[in-house]
Amino acid sequence: MAALDASLPALRTKPKAIFFTDFDGTITLQDSNDWLTDNLGFGVELRRQGNKDVLHNGRPFRRAFQEMLDSVTKPFDQCLQLLLENVKLDPAFKEFAAWCRENNVPIVVLSGGMQPIIRALLAHLVGEEEAAVMQIVSNDVKPRPGKSINDENGWDIQYHDESPFGHDKSLQIRPYAALQDRPVMFYAGDGVSDLSAAKETDLLFAKAGRDLVTYCEKENIPFTVFNDFSDIHKVVADVVGGKISVQQAATGTK
InterPro entries, per this entry (predicted)? Predict the structure, then answer.
């Protein structure tokens, strides 16, 4: 059991459910990478076109994301400070996270973003103690050759894996899904970095009006739409409490 706990840490407390979630634009109201690109990089239009190319033209997310971040040349410490000042939390997430902790539903953050930004924002937005219990699997940041990350044009993304996504979130979920006797698994996301995870859990929450909804409708993937974490909280509590099934909860855009 110890080996299993090490490879699948969300099982450590023997939960009845696991909540996997994207970070940027899902837990937060603003996507930190989009914010950097829109305000410090090549801007909104080129970023949106990159997302459309991923969603409709099959362009690898990794390549479009790299171009976004390459356009941001401000030192990393300055980028981080600006994000702490500008990125806000989904107002209902903190209450949901507290409920998950009380009801033994581990939250596993699966992000296409960068670990130092996610950890700093989570600690700032929900507090050090709450952030410390959340497992985070994401990309990282590294210095460019001959530079420090806090130099002008000094940092680069370090991808989690070699996949076209940079971080293939399905690879984190599938070992749990393969277990014979396993917890109910949820996933919440909003955009093109979530496409790899869309088909992997029992119930998918897709944020209203975002690219993930478009993808799910196009691919006929069952999902339920959410506006904020109060919507998610109610459904997860009802499923965990046995009031409804995941099939009943997958209402699409209705």
Answer: HAD-like_hydrolase_phosphatase (IPR050849), HAD-like_sf (IPR036412), HAD_hydro_PyrdxlP_Pase-like (IPR006384), HAD_sf (IPR023214)
